[in-house]
Design goal:
single chain; 559 residues; alpha+beta; seven-stranded mixed sheet; five-stranded parallel sheet; 13 helices; 28% helix
Length: 559
């Protein structure tokens, strides 16, 4: 098949225009077009009122060889026939890439020890799925509960102020991504098309087929719940075993090789291949691995606040008169500003038409995150506005040189947010107008905060380091120049966002093993190798391949 990339048409083009564009671009008659499918659809909204759709199409035609030869010879395409005057043609034609997933191994008939996967977020889920599909019958240990029980516990914090440290937004089947916007896009390098494997498995588990072609696919929390259950059933049907409420207490290492695990309930499991897909909030597990001498190092991450605007304001600022178009949906944004104090401030995990949620996993601390349903029809848009920090900043909280110093910073400001919120898991909040003016908020404006259990108005300058406050105060007016209305005085800031990524990297070699502990495979967000559902799932596939090849005595595939 042929792939046409960057084929541009007006937002409201008639259905027939896509076929006409294909015929014109390839210079073929309708009789030579066997069919085509949409591989990707995105949009260019840089010109307000003149938004265009951008397509990549996979085309089936008997004249494939002739067309490819013409393209390789650099012969310019003829002017579009019977096509409405539209955006300039910058399209290209090439052979459609093979995106079908190829398994790297098959399990032997006799497998002395089954591989163990710790954690069942997106990374652990795909480690387990791919290992099961290759016949390795993995055992998956999840410290939290099954996803529906976990949902009850999570709502217990949101509605009743009761936190379960083992079952919450961070811990449980599906991982932190379950209570999010369900974004399924990433900028990772993916030359083996592992991302396509992820999306295909999600569709098989119940996701809408549009995630296979829209440029910024998302699923939403409620759909993710049933999808995770379906994927669990697939793993079990293939011989995998999933054990909930199983927290790993210790790892047995002999002469630099993993030999087993001890669980909190006293069980011991024998294993030579263990994947740690533990997520970015498994602080006790980080500490245990550090104590056991597993190599890790502090890494940069970011801290800040959640900001909420009326979704209608963001739609109008991004799409102008075309706001509300069904293809465009609720608008998102991506902003960055480099500050005079050397810090960078950027938007992160933007949730159109969503809510700000309580994401604490430890008692006496407040953490925020963002979430949307598939419909994205809540009244507010929210995003994290965060400041980049480095291990040099962590020394003020732990000067021991420990790779876990970033955890000390997180805990300090999460505890401060808990105190500012009144000590009942309410979050401290402030209007943008008051934050920029340097005064505590005493009343809300037009934007009602969505965070539950609730928001206590305060002075957010006390909830982050001074350099972070100064950077965000500089960035908000700068963002307003990029997106009109962003510094709306009534917009709402809620603190604090501290779990943007893992504060540590459990470093691994090109074969997937820990640098100094054979058989231990650090993976996903918690190990510092992913950020978001898609990249974590892709890293899970790569890790499953590394485990399989290690069991069989092979070498991991690069990339």
């Amino acid at each position: 098949m042929l792939r046409i990339t960057d084929l541009r048409l007006p937002l409201d083009h008639p259905e027939r225009a896509l076929t006409d564009a294909v015929l014109a671009r390839l210079r073929i008659d309708a009789t030579d077009l066997t069919g085509f499918t949409v591989a990707k659809r995105s949009y260019d909204a840089r010109k307000r009122g003149g938004i265009v759709l951008i397509y990549s199409l996979d085309v089936d035609t008997p004249r494939e060889a002739e067309i490819l030869a013409r393209e390789q010879a650099g012969i310019e395409p003829a002017p579009a026939r019977k096509r409405e005057q539209g955006p300039a043609d910058t399209s290209k034609v090439l052979r459609t890439p093979d995106t079908e997933y190829k398994f790297v191994a098959r399990a032997p008939a006799a497998l002395p020890l089954r591989p163990i996967v710790i954690g069942m977020g997106p990374c652990g889920l795909f480690v387990g799925l791919v290992l099961a599909q290759m016949g390795f019958r993995p055992i998956i240990l999840e410290r939290g509960k099954a996803v529906r029980e976990r949902t009850v516990d999570t709502f217990g914090l949101w509605r009743k102020r009761v936190l379960n440290p083992e079952s919450n937004v961070q811990f449980g089947e599906g991982g932190a991504g379950t209570f999010s916007d369900g974004k399924l896009y990433s900028q990772i390098s993916d030359k083996h098309h592992h991302g396509r494997k992820v999306l295909t498995e999600f569709v098989l588990a119940g996701a809408p087929e549009e995630i296979l072609y829209v440029s910024k696919p998302h699923i939403g929390t409620f759909r993710l719940v049933s999808m995770v259950e379906n994927m669990r059933a697939t793993i079990e049907a293939l011989g995998g075993e999933i054990r909930f409420s199983q927290r790993v207490e210790d790892v047995l290492i002999e002469d630099g090789q993993v030999r087993g695990l001890s669980l909190a309930d006293g069980q011991q499991l024998r294993a030579d291949h263990v994947v740690f897909a533990i997520g970015h909030s498994a602080r006790d597990t980080f500490a245990m691995l550090h104590q056991r001498g597993v190599f890790m190092e502090a890494k940069p991450f970011s801290i800040g606040f959640r900001i909420e605007h009326p979704q209608s304001l963001i739609d109008a600022a991004r799409f102008g008169p075309q706001a509300g178009h069904p293809i465009l949906g609720a608008a998102d944004y991506k902003l960055v500003h480099h500050c005079r104090n050397g810090r960078s401030v950027y938007s992160f995990c933007m949730c159109p038409g969503g809510t700000v949620v309580a994401a604490a996993s430890e008692p006496g601390r407040v953490v925020t995150n963002g979430m949307s349903q598939y419909s994205r029809n809540e009244r507010n848009a929210n995003a994290a506005i965060v400041v980049g920090i480095t291990p040099e900043d962590y020394k003020a909280y732990d000067d021991s040189g420990s790779p876990l110093a970033g955890v000390a910073l997180q805990r300090h400001w999460e505890a401060q947010a808990f105190a500012l919120g009144g000590g009942e898991y309410e979050a401290p909040g402030q209007t943008v107008g008051d934050f920029l003016a340097g005064r505590a908020s005493t009343a809300l404006g037009a934007v009602q905060p969505s965070y539950t259990p609730g928001v206590r108005l305060s002075d957010l300058s006390q909830s982050l380091p001074d350099y972070a406050i100064a950077a965000i105060r500089e960035a908000l007016p700068a963002f307003d120049k990029q997106l009109k209305g962003f510094a709306l005085p009534d917009a709402m800031l809620t603190g604090v966002e501290t779990r943007t990524s893992s504060p540590v990297r459990i470093t691994r070699g090109p074969d997937g093993h820990s640098l100094n502990t054979r058989g231990l495979f650090p993976a996903g967000e918690g190990a510092g190798y992913a950020g978001g559902i898609l990249s974590a799932a892709v890293d899970g596939i790569r890790t499953a391949e590394a485990v399989a090849l290690s069991i069989l005595g092979g070498a991991a595939r690069a990339g």
